[in-house]
Design goal:
single chain; mainly alpha; Cytochrome C3; three-stranded antiparallel β-sheet; 4 helices; 3 strands; about 35% helix; about 5% strand; Cyt_c_III_dom; Cyt_c_III; Multihaem_cyt_sf; metal ion binding
Length: about 130
Amino acid sequence: MKKVLGGILGLVLGLAFYSYAVCGENGPEVITFEGGKKGAVTFNHSKHQKDYGIKCGECHHGKDHSPYKEGMKIQKCADCHNKNMENKKLNSVKKAMHKNCKSCHKAVKDKHPKAPTKCKECHVKK
């Protein structure tokens, strides 16, 4: 139980750091999400922006689900994506990230065959 809670806390803190870092800039170059049973996830934020041309609003959104726009305050993902959320398919940060990241990776698999879609391709145990 402690490992699960530690993993969730690590993920939430990582997302909080990431969210605040994105405000007013392009955000951090690389983000590592620690914890979880499956291992850490290292996300190359800069590569997604620069090499793949992904705009902020394709991943980040406001509480009303409007896409991120320059100057918009970015909330912590867990502020909405938590056990109190009515949508049970998105009621955790893990579920929201899996839905967003995996669906995007699957959609671009033909153009980017190395886009990870399986657990071990993103999650690395230490």
